[in-house]
Write a structure and sequence with these properties.
By secondary structure, the protein is mostly beta strands. The protein is 6% helix and 39% strand. It has a single domain (4-122), classed as Beta Barrel (OB fold (Dihydrolipoamide Acetyltransferase, E2P)), CATH 2.40.50.140.
Length: 126
């Protein structure tokens, strides 16, 4: 039986464009300050996507911790997402399945909302 709960994660990348985000790629900082991948959302609805516009900014070249990272399209798949790195300064509340593998959620997560009231430093570590 699957159990779902809400959790917070840092938005590190998106699929789609800054004017129409499709999915969020999420991370959490580890104890050494590195942003670790923890999962990606399912497809974001149009109204939710519109609420993200203006809240996410493109990452500056050479400054993002995932600059050379690639993210698979699905668990165990060797195809990769076409992502745009964003400044890791926004927190998303997501609905997650509790199943994890090496610190990452095994199943896609669902966006609940952007947490504009929460600092990245307040997100639990990976």
């Amino acid at each position: 039986m699957r159990a779902r709960q809400t959790a917070e994660a840092v938005v590190g990348a998106i699929t789609g464009t800054l004017s129409r985000p499709r999915m969020l790629v999420l991370g959490r900082f580890d104890g050494e300050g590195r942003l670790r991948y923890v999962g990606k959302t399912t497809q974001i609805s149009t109204p939710a996507s519109q609420q993200l516009v203006g809240q996410l900014t493109a990452a500056s070249m050479g400054t993002h911790p995932w600059e050379y990272a690639r993210f698979s399209t699905a668990w165990g798949n060797r195809d990769f997402l076409d992502t745009t790195l964003v400044a890791p300064d926004r927190v998303a509340e997501v609905s997650v399945d509790t199943a994890k593998d090496r610190g990452a959620w095994r199943h896609p997560v669902r966006l609940v909302r952007l947490r504009l009231d929460m600092a990245v430093a307040d997100v639990p570590t990976a």
